[in-house]
Specification:
Elements lengths: L2 H5 L11 H14 L4 E8 L5 E7 L4 E7 L7 H15 L1 H7 L1 E6 L4 H5 L11 H7 L15 E3 L2 E3 L4 H13 L3 E5 L8 E4 L4 H13 L16 E3 L2 E3 L3 H11 L14 H5 L6 E6 L3 E2 L8 E5 H26 L11 H8 L1 H13 L6 E3 H10 L1 H20 L6 H28 L3 E2 L2 H17 L3
Parallel strand pairs: 3-4, 3-7, 7-11, 8-10
Antiparallel strand pairs: 1-2, 2-4, 5-6, 8-11, 9-10, 12-15, 13-14
């Protein structure tokens, strides 16, 4: 395939599409290219919104791609709309791909709507944090697939997850792409199969767009590194086994969620599954592999100290207001899971710092990630905590004047923490914004590279 020719067709997007706009774009593509693109509804969201899947191609092998498995990650939605548009307008590229493609631009429309306040910009770290939303694991499409292993039994998949399961069972895809993105750092991928040639090609897709690779700390300590920025797939079984060994226990919230899409598809068919993680913001130090003046253990512990301090402040106020949250408030549950998981995270990082890996000199990228990159999730927690308070202030029924005063006071405290943390990151680390076109191009090329590796 002529990748340069294909990537030249990617539009120069300036904003992200809302859920309604994604639906409009999908219908417009189907109407514009009826001989190439068709669609069908695979199910409905918890709030009854239809989830559409675009189908195109006649290849013997199936490719299943779905975006917004986490609702604060809209890059994949833009990628799939773009891929559909390219296939529709250039059927010769579709034919050359050799696959039949099934594209779901938004698998979690309900939660994605709660992020839309930042989709149109301005694209600053502060604006993103203030509009950020993410549900707890038990309400994430990506982490509610059935799983039955010692330490984690779960069989309560969301309606959206059930729709995906039915489609997986029917299609038995040779390739599945769960399109994700991170907030800060560099580009990295997960694969269910180690393929050195594919790993190198994926990393070159980021280099082609001048987007740095994420060479800091891995997202999870239990995963295997296939290449500098490509890792073994996240797995609930591997996670539980690691936490039992390294942390001497698992977070209390973990049994409330299930496996990921890769866990489930492995029980259905032989499938290459890929996740692609791309950041909105970056600093070039995230790909600096030169040796720092700290050991990796010292970097881990320094980051851990800041993390514990952050959660101590958050937890102090969280306890005072938690009883005021109504069940229908969507903003507090993810914060709950983060607070509940701190103790296990502390144990596992201390164990890593004390081990052989903690004795070597850390790379600049690893120091940067621990000291600066890991401050972003802390800001996001404060942002969500503030939104939880403001939800209750907007729904004051049954609350006393003292309750409302307390919520208002704490919301202001959380807002100040958000502003201070974002300002601190901007002072000490770069927050350059990566153009949407570059991010879409990397994910689109990743999908085509992966399917070409299977032909």
């Amino acid at each position: 395939m002529d990748m340069s020719q294909i990537l030249a067709l990617v539009p120069d997007y300036q904003v992200f599409y809302t859920v309604d706009e994604l639906n409009q774009e999908s219908l417009a593509l189907e109407q514009a290219y009826p001989e190439t693109i068709s669609s069908f509804v695979i199910g409905a969201s918890r709030q009854g919104y239809p989830i559409r899947c675009l189908k195109m191609g006649t290849g013997k092998k199936n490719a299943l791609c779905f975006a917004c498995p986490h609702p604060n990650e809209p890059i994949g939605a833009m990628t799939l709309i773009t891929l559909a548009g390219i296939f529709g307008s250039h059927p010769e590229i579709l034919a050359e791909s050799g696959f039949t493609w099934y594209l779901i631009p938004c698998i979690d429309p309900d939660s994605t709507r709660l992020n839309e306040s930042w989709f149109k910009g301005p694209f600053t770290l502060l604006n993103y944090v203030k509009g950020f939303y993410r549900p707890p694991g038990s309400k994430q499409v990506e982490w509610t697939f059935p799983v039955y292993i010692p330490g984690c039994h779960f069989n309560d998949p969301l309606p959206e997850t059930q729709a995906l399961m039915r489609l997986m069972d029917e299609l038995k895809p040779a390739f599945m792409f769960s399109l994700h993105n991170s907030t800060y750092g560099g580009a990295y991928w997960y694969l269910t199969k180690e393929d050195p040639a594919l790993c190198a090609a994926l990393e070159n897709a980021a280099r082609r767009q001048d987007v740095p690779l994420h060479l800091g700390e891995p997202e999870a300590l239990y995963i295997k590194k296939y290449s500098p920025a490509v890792f073994s797939m996240l797995s609930i079984t591997a996670l539980v086994n690691y936490m039992l060994k390294a942390a001497k226990g698992i977070p209390p919230t973990l049994p409330n969620s299930g496996g990921c899409s890769a866990d489930y598809i492995a029980t259905v068919c032989d499938c290459l599954t890929m996740l692609a993680e791309l950041p909105y913001f970056y600093d070039p130090r995230i790909c600096d592999e030169s040796e720092s003046e700290m050991t990796r253990g010292e970097a881990l512990l320094a980051g851990l100290k800041a993390e514990q301090s952050n959660y101590a402040i958050l937890g102090e106020y969280w306890q005072q207001i938690h009883h005021l949250f109504q069940p229908e408030n969507p903003f507090f549950e993810f914060v709950d899971t983060c607070i509940a998981g701190v103790e296990a995270s502390v144990r596992s990082k201390r164990a890593m710092a004390a081990g052989e890996e903690g004795k070597r000199m850390a790379k600049v990228s690893e120091v940067f990630d621990n000291l600066y990159g890991r401050r972003i999730p802390e800001a996001l927690n404060y942002g969500l905590a503030s939104r939880a308070c403001k939800y209750e202030l907007a729904h004051p029924e049954g609350k006393s004047i003292n309750d409302l005063d307390l919520l208002s006071l704490v919301a202001n405290i959380f807002d100040k923490e958000v502003e201070q943390t974002c300002a601190w990151v901007e002072k000490h680390a770069g927050t350059a914004v990566i153009p949407i076109k570059k991010l879409v191009s990397i994910q689109l090329e990743s999908a085509l590279l992966a399917t070409q590796s299977l032909l």
